Fold this protein.
Amino acid sequence: MCSVHDTIELEKRGVPATVITTQAFRNVAVFQFRAKGMDGHPYVELPHPISNLKREEMREVTLRFVDEVVRQLTA
């Protein structure tokens, strides 16, 4: 999961970052954060699957998580 690695590298440089993943990849994200010494780093977890959603359905899902993304990036 490259997004975890990217998030870690950005955070090390002082740039707020988070990972947006789906429930199916939760354990992968948690394991990689732990393995890289950032156990407990927050991430945003969307329902799974999302690849089959229509545009309006994806918009609805996205809007449900915008506040969480903003919170994580500004905390």
Summary: The beta strands are 20-22, 44-46. Residues 22 and 45 are 5 Å apart (CA to CA). Residues 2-74 form one domain.
